[in-house]
Amino acid sequence: MTTAFDPIVLSGKQLANRVVMAPMTRSRAYGPGAEPTELMATYYAQRAAAGLIVTEGIQPSAVGQGYPDTPGLHTAGQVRAWRTVTDAVHREGGVIFAQLMHTGRVGHPSLLPDGLVPVGPSAVAAKGQVYTHEGPKEFVTPKELSEAEIRQTVADFADAARNAVEAGFDGVELHGANGYLIHQFLSPHTNRRTDGWGGDTEGLIRFAVEVVTAVTEAIGGDRVGLRISPGNVYNDMAEENPAEVYGALLARLGGLDLAYLHLMEGPDRELTARLRKDWPGTFVLNPFTYPDVTGPDALELIEDGSADMVAYGALFLANPDLPRRLASGGPFNTADKATFYGGDHRGYTDYPALGG
User: Fold this and answer.
1) Could you say which of 56, 107, 171, 356 would form a disulfide bridge with 118 (CB–CB 3.0 to 4.6 Å)?
2) 271/149 Cα distance (integer angstroms)
3) Coil, strand or helix: which one is 259?
4) 216-234 in b/e burial notation, b at 16+ Cβ within 10 A?
5) Which of 124, 77, 87, 129 is nearest to 105 (CA)?
6) SS3 content of the chain, % helix, strand, coil (to 5)
7) 262: which strand partners?
């Protein structure tokens, strides 16, 4: 029987275990350059015992930023600063992927350089608010991307992936979940286009397919993962037929030999089983446990074959040495859900292990 503590080969590297540190926005790239800091290097190095670390969301372009103080991978300074982080993780024996996250319509003009506004597949505003340095603000109606701008956005993802490799990352994860830009293209709720980038199922998946293909061509499929969240309503999302759309998406991507598929699961465990069956490669599962955090019981998902690797979020914040604690059955520090779900913006309390 395979367990979470057996090694697995990913991107040509043998990982020490099958416990993944899930991507979590921390908002610590203080300053105008959106560059990672020494605190971030310490934070990730402390968690290098994970089989795989996936970073917080990193914007592939300036307009892709949707939250304050999130880091980028589109300038030379950002690449240099990320090298400090990857070197720290590698010194501790860890493996780290950069999550590339374009937030699309999720954001606010006050978070962007002058003249830029949030963008999306269609001019459909999200209901709700986003956190800014001035406090919460209502989402605005995004600018609908032109076809030329769509192609430029695809190129931005590929360029950011190249920058990630230059910065020393072992690979990248494309964030196609949680209501951000790739996810926005996948849903007719947010994608109301009629020009070939929307409409039927092939149109809905086109942007995701082209982004994944471009990044694969840029750095190799064995260094590319994709995160999806079928049926997830976060950030005012809605999907009428996720089984059809995501089944078609996986069929188109299955031949690219990606490093992994990362599923942020919803309450439909039957859909999880179907996607697991349809995906030919490594399957990473962030199991549905809301309102509780993912706990030790999730290790059984590897033992029963539901997943190849299991991703932990909040528990990794409170327990930097989480794989060791899982292997020994605890004890576990309690995760602060308010900090986890709310992000880690200025004024929030950091965990003592982070030195905050």
Assistant:
1) 107
2) 33
3) coil
4) bebbbbbbbbbbbbbbbee
5) 124
6) 35, 15, 45
7) 227, 284
**Strands 96-100 and 171-176, bridge-based pairing:** parallel
Rounded to the nearest integer, the mean pLDDT of the chain is 93
pLDDT digits (tens, 9 = 90+) for 129-160: 999 999 999 999 999 999 999 999 999 999 99
**Residue tagged 């999907």 (tokens):** 239
**Average of per-residue pLDDT across 48-67:** 98
Write down the catalytic residue from 180, 246, 260, 312. Answer: 180
CA dist 1 and 14 (Å) reads 19
Rounded CA-CA distance 274/109 in Å is 40
Taking a C-beta distance cutoff of 8 angstroms, is the pair 73, 29 a contact? no
Q: Is residue 323 classed as helix, strand or coil in its secondary structure?
A: helix
- pLDDT for 337 equals 56
Distance CA 113, CA 314 (A): 31
For 132-136, which contacts have Cβ atoms below 8 Å and span 24 or more sequence positions? 132/68, 132/108, 133/68, 133/346, 134/110
Q: Name which of 279, 218, 273 is nearest 287 in CA terms.
A: 273
Q: For position 137, what pLDDT does the model report?
A: 97
Residue 290 identity (one-letter amino acid):
Y
- Mean pLDDT over 163-167 rounds to 98
Closest of 66, 96, 70, 88 to residue 235, by C-alpha: 66
Assess whether pLDDT exceeds 60 at residue 348. Answer: no
Between CA 45 and CA 49, with CA 48 as vertex, the angle to 5 degrees is 145
Query: Can you tell me whether residue 172 is helix, strand or coil?
Result: strand
- 99 residue type, one letter: Q
Residue 347, number of CB atoms within 10 A of its CB: 5
Question: For residue range 180-190, what is the model confidence (pLDDT) as tens digits?
Answer: 999 999 999 99
Task: Give the C-alpha separation, 35 to 82, whole Å.
Answer: 8
% of the chain with per-residue pLDDT over 90: 91
260 is catalytic: no
Q: How many CB atoms are located within 10 Å of the residue 114 CB?
A: 5
Is residue 64 within 8 A of residue 111, CB to CB? The reply is no
